[in-house]
Amino acid sequence: MTVPTLTGPARGAPGGTPARPALGAQLLRRKPIAQMVSEAENNGGGPRLVRSFGVLQLTMISVGATLGTGILVILGESVPLAGPAIWISFAIAGLAALLSAVSYAEMAGMVPAAGSSYSYTYATMGEGMAWICGWCLVLEYAVSVAAVAVGAGQYVNETLAVFGSVLPDAVSQPPGAGGVVNIPAMVIVVLATILLVRGAKESAWINTTIVIIKVGILLFFCAVAFTAFNAGNFEPLLPMGAAGVSAAASTVFFSYIGFDAASTAGEEARNPKRDLPRAIMLSMLIVTTIYVLVAVAAIGARPWGWFDGTDAALVRILQEITGQPWIVLVFAAGAVLAIASIVLIVLYGQTRILMSMSRDGLIPKIFGRVSRRTGTPVAGTLLVGTAVALTAGLVPLGALADATSIGTLFAFALVNVAVIYLRRTRPELERTFRVPLFPLTPIMGAAMCAFLMANLGADTWVVFALWMLVGVAAYFGYGRRNSRVAAMSREEYRELSGKQLSPQQNPETTKAEIS
Q1: What pLDDT is attached to residue 274?
Q2: 52: closest CA among 207, 202, 261?
Q3: Is the pLDDT confidence value at 49 over 90?
Q4: Please, what is the angle between helix 75-82 and helix 397-425, to 10°?
Q5: Fewest beta carbons within 10 Å, which of 102, 299, 366, 374?
Q6: How many CB atoms lie within 10 A of CB 504?
Q7: By percentage, how much of the chain surpasses pLDDT 90?
């Protein structure tokens, strides 16, 4: 099978000038799946990403980007909303994430490209919805990196406190939270950026090591917290009512966004069609179990009112229970590493999504350039790292967490819809994983995402609306004129859309056949 790539001027117009479709037709034009696989293998003839990840690395990427955020950073903000029922909020958010995760698993097995839900939406709902999804992912990934990094200052201070010293608020908190600039947050983002520039394989092994440490410290916390367990702390279970549980679930959903990071590694997995679905499902099981366990242990150790306004809550619980500085030191240092692993992997996912959007011509080419020496998008990584570092240093956590949640929920809803669409229109496509209880599961996943979005505050919706307006302006200012899919002639587009990958093909065999 020969699948041409979208390089050079479009055919079908005099002098190579693209005869672009009308706006409505362009917004609905879908990117052929065969084309995505082709570009993943040859990157338009330029340097391509290196396939080096197995199921272990992919699972650790997903766990590394997910585990720890809600527990280590925003527990003090979410417990006052739900009270002792915060563990139920984590379970509800985990269910919503799981319903979307199975849809991600099915799509990842069909479309092993680096763009995650952006690529899935482009293949099913067209360029317009793909742009909206990609724009939401920019909000999700870049802002979540900054939001997680903001919490680093709290744990750096807990580590230093063991030695009788702390960083002043001026350099450990952002404006609006009593400081001027959050230096620890900026440093963590910069270090992650440097590591990603050096190479994805090295970053993955470092992340795997940190994830093992992270799981260990959270289980250690549970072991200590259960020694001070008081069942009375769970009464009343719902002091803020069901509405409080729902509101907290919408907030802590931010804690689950990392599982889709594995799908951004579609072009760096050795066997993406087999390993990506396995990694996504396994990571969700690990993360949800640990989140609920830690939440129960924390509430059992301290009454829910204690958490209001408490930074680095888990460290403080350990300190009060044991009174041993070395325990606090070990946990706080491990928490800093845990935050660093989230920053590393989510920043990785952001650069790969932008690379896919750049390859489609929707954003500038600089984000899609892959270095021949390192096999990574160096320029794009440096640009994203700089922007995220500044955001992490200057924006408070609360605003970042809610903005991340709404962008994530919207993108997840689109993936659920994409699964339904492809089952109906392309039933012949190979699916290495199939969503169980179809179509009930993706319908419930989309509905759950909509429900959680509805529970977010009015300020968050205003921020989301403004972000979408900026996205519309960016699309008409750049993407509309530079889209490579829109630049194809009708004949070329029909030819590519009619091509199919055989059931036996995987990315490696596709590479041989398209060369």
Answers
A1: 84
A2: 202
A3: no
A4: 80
A5: 366
A6: 7
A7: 18
Q: Which amino acid does the sequence have at 49?
A: L
Rounded to an integer, the average pLDDT of 180-201 is: 85
CA–CA dist 112, 131 (Å, integer): 19
Cα 312 to Cα 69, 154, 256, 343: the distances in Å are: 12, 6, 19, 17
Cα–chain-centroid distance for residue 165?
35
| Predicted confidence band of residue 512 (pLDDT cuts 50, 70, 90) | very low
Q: Are 114 and 352 in contact (CB under 8 A)?
A: yes
**Both tokens assigned to 181:** 């600039």
Burial class, 308, CB count within 10 angstroms (exposed 0-12 / middle 13-18 / buried 19+):
exposed
- The Cβ-side half-sphere exposure at 485, using a 13 Å CA radius, reads 33
State pLDDT tens for residues 193-205: 988 888 766 777 8
- Provide the β-strand partners of residue 53: 269
Residue 178 per-residue DSSP state: T
Q: Which two tokens stand for residue 135?
A: 């724009």
Query: Which token pair is 219?
Result: 């289980």
**Nearest to 261, CA basis, from 285, 279, 286:** 279
Which pLDDT band, with edges at 50, 70 and 90, does 223 fall under? Answer: very high
pLDDT at 482: 93
Q: Which residues pair with 462 in a beta bridge?
A: none
Q: How far is CA 85 from CA 182, 314, 431, in A?
A: 32, 17, 38
d(Cα 30, Cα 486) in Å, to the nearest integer?
A: 9
Confidence at residue 509, expressed as pLDDT on a 0 to 100 scale: 36
Q: List, in order, residues 6 or more apart from 357 with CB less than 8 Å away.
A: 115, 118, 134, 363, 367
Name 250's Cβ contacts closer than 8 Å, sequence gap at least 6. 93, 405, 452, 453, 455, 456
* Each residue's pLDDT tens digit, 294-343: 999 999 999 998 988 777 788 889 889 998 888 888 887 887 888 788 88
The owner of tokens 């803020």 is 240
Per-residue confidence band for 495, with pLDDT thresholds at 50, 70 and 90: confident
CA dist 121 to 27, 63, 125, 129, 233, Å?
12, 24, 5, 7, 45
Give the separation between CA 130 and CA 43, rounded to whole angstroms: 20
Q: Are 253 and 409 in contact (CB under 8 A)?
A: yes
Is residue 70 very low, low, confident or very high in pLDDT (cuts 50, 70, 90)? Answer: low
For 338-393, give the DSSP string: HHHHHHHHHHHHHHHHHHHHHHTTSS-GGGG---TTTSS-HHHHHHHHHHHHHHHH
Average pLDDT, whole number, for the chain? 81
Residue 226 makes CB contacts below 8 A (sequence gap 6+) with 297, 300, 301
Token pair belonging to 148: 């997680």
Query: Quick one: CA torsion of 462, 380, 252, 226, rounded to 10 degrees?
Result: -160
